[in-house]
Write a structure and sequence with these properties.
Layout: E1 4-8, H1 12-22, E2 27-31, E3 55-58, H2 64-74, H3 78-85, E4 87-88, E5 93-96, H4 98-110, E6 115-118, E7 130-132, H5 140-149, E8 154-160, E9 164-166, E10 176-177, E11 190-194, H6 196-208, H7 228-232, E12 259-265, E13 272-275, H8 284-292, E14 302-304, E15 308-314, H9 316-319, E16 332-334, H10 344-362, H11 375-385, H12 410-431
Parallel strand pairs: 1-2, 1-7, 2-6, 7-16
Antiparallel strand pairs: 3-5, 4-5, 8-15, 9-13, 9-14, 10-11, 11-12, 12-13
Bound molecules: flavin-adenine dinucleotide.
Amino acid sequence: MMKKVTIVGGGLAGSEAAYQLLKRDIAVDLIEMRPNKMTPAHQTSHLAELVCSNSFRSKLPHNAPGLLKEEMKRLDSLIVKAALQAEIKAGGALAVDRELFSREVEKILGAFKHFNLIQEEVLKIPEGPVIIATGPLTSDKLFDDIKKQLSDDAMHFFDAVAPIITKDSIDMSVCYVKNRWDDDHPGDYINCPMNEEEYKAFYKALTTAETAPIKDFEDNVFEGCMPVETMAKRGVDTLRYGPLKPVGLRKDKDHKPYAVVQLRKDDARDSLYNLVGFQTHLKFGEQKALIRSIPGLQNAEIMRYGVMHKNSFLKAPNHLKRTYQSKLREDLFFAGQITGVEGYIESAASGLLAGINMARFIKGQSLLKLPTTTMIGASADYLENANVKQFQPMNANYGLVDPITEKHKKKERKEHYMQRALKALNEYLEAHDE
Ligand SMILES: Cc1cc2nc3c(=O)[nH]c(=O)nc-3n(C[C@H](O)[C@H](O)[C@H](O)COP(=O)(O)OP(=O)(O)OC[C@H]3O[C@@H](n4cnc5c(N)ncnc54)[C@H](O)[C@@H]3O)c2cc1C
């Protein structure tokens, strides 16, 4: 009889893990609570819904998130495959039409006869082989049971989403299309330029606007996804060195913007744009006034407002092995953001490794411990070995992998990291029959 695994959570990690099991001839019951019960951030019943940005970050293979995707491609990742099918142009980033992306994931999983989607909330960690991939917004009852079983060892931080506006409402007599540092191509981003006076007025409005109250809020926001109003309070020029950086964005040689708000395409029909780096939890009225004060957005029609949510994760070094297997039970694996990885692509990568390792566990094979020169291996190693007292979620970055001791220029150094990682991954997989 065909072996079966239960996966709880049909997000990025759960969908990827399901695919890895299905293609290894293991049946999957994927239990997803939406649409019967929604999280505070998801808006659809789709599998692998992207809750905020539509970008999987850099697609340049020598950048850390780009290398992660290259490694995932080598391991036949569902999420990378679906993202490439749903890609929309965004300079050096891999951005997708979020609706097409989720549909592609559903189409590929749905094509397996031994795939079974169950739409209900799970209240307790199930018996039998199971992968928990319920994400940073795991429903309360299940999270309570996880805490109970893992001796209350859970933490949280706060994370905000960015607003989306319609393209029709952007004033293109003020804004212009251009990618940073790229004068030769038409460009994918719409830029809203500000002069010094406009920036200072915008800055004042942003730093004095009222934020929406959030239940249980404490000021521990994640650096990589910080609300724009929190970042602004660090100093008047912080945004000009961050999301509103004007360098490389001149319209022509005589144009010298003081700051630039960038808008990124959000759908393949090219009708929606998100404000890049503009995650916020200002009150909706304040957001509207602030967005409409940006040059070119005076008539902006807002389709989704920014909001902030509490993200929960486990103190992984106490509970997880670098195979994503729990120390509590050998047939229990965790995957995705709940493990302490941070980001869409990182969550999917952990689902990939958890799925492969669950398949290997079921088949009685040794579990994969990918080399720490690879981005997937180094991220998993971080979860097992990070200092538990200071444990915080982690994006893919070169600080995680084994350092290169020889001296190289910055660009060449990254090239070396990439070549070394892909070689090590290939050799490891060949030695382990993958
Ligand atoms: C508000 C917010 C904004 C974010 N923005 C970004 C961003 O812009 N870019 C980025 O890279 N990362 C972002 N992240 C971080 C992270 O990458 C995403 O949360 C990502 O979706 C995590 O993938 P996952 O598979 O672990 O969880 P999810 O994609 O959230 O999937 C978990 C699934 O489990 C389901 N579920 C939860 N509890 C239960 C239960 N008890 N029973 C059954 N099903 C359940 C949920 O409905 C959900 O579908 C954001 C996170 C949050 C919370």
